[in-house]
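User: I'm putting together notes for a lab meeting next week and I want to include a structural view of one of the chains we've been expressing. I don't have a solved structure, so I'd like a prediction I can at least talk through. The sequence is below, exactly as it appears in our construct file.
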Amino acid sequence: MRSIKSFREYINQYVALKNSVGVEMKSGICTLLQFERMANEMKELPGISKNLMNAWCNKRPDESSSNRYNRVVYLRQFAQYLTSIGIPCYIPELPKFSSSFTPYIFSKKQIEIFFTACDQFKPFQTNYNASYFIMPTLFKVLYATGLRLGEALSLKSKDVDLYNKYVRIRESKNGCERIVPISKTLADICRTYREQRKWFVTRPITSELFFIKKDQSKCTNAAAYGFFRQILWQINIAHGGRGAGPRVHDLRHTFACHQAYWKRE
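Assistant: Thanks for the context. Below is the predicted structure for the 265-residue chain, given as structure tokens.
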């Protein structure tokens, strides 16, 4: 008679199998451990009943359709694995998910105007701990590499290799570490910023972060978005409001369309 393991044991077994074939499961583990807590609260044992699966698949308050879809996908795949090893599970249909959002793709001319405005920006009022001095370099990094804003703001100085021309991303959305090559042009821009920040930032610099405010604290997403909106206003690019864009993340989409614009040397 087959012994019944706990959900945790089956999750570990499943993750080990995925890792053995090269599938990264960092995000999936978090989701499956959340499911385990629900199963324990409902006092359910493996497999996965229709009642438990439906409870998991229900849309949560203020949850986006994409997040719900991803949750269901992870558990559906886990249920299929359990079924394959002889543990009956209810397999749900995937929820319908579609997005009508269209990313804003900046033209090359708009990008040139945007960066000129960044370089010439003068704040309306003086704020000792403002982060505007990092913004020209920050946005050039976003455009020239396709990094997410959070990834760029979390970069550590040791992970920005300007000699070998690459940046190492340790804190990514999917939990996967990766190396992103950069052009000589961008490396020179980053090198100039690194030298200039010695005069902007409280000395000596002790922060590990590459992008830092004057007090060496981390720049926030909100500060970057505020600067982004000011520049859009200055160069007469209309902003459609929350969720309508252009968004900072659209620089990532624009990078995908303009890769040839920054020639890697």
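A couple of points you could mention at the meeting. Confidence is low (pLDDT under 50) at residues 260-265. The beta strands are 160-161, 166-169, 178-181.

User: Perfect, that's what I needed.
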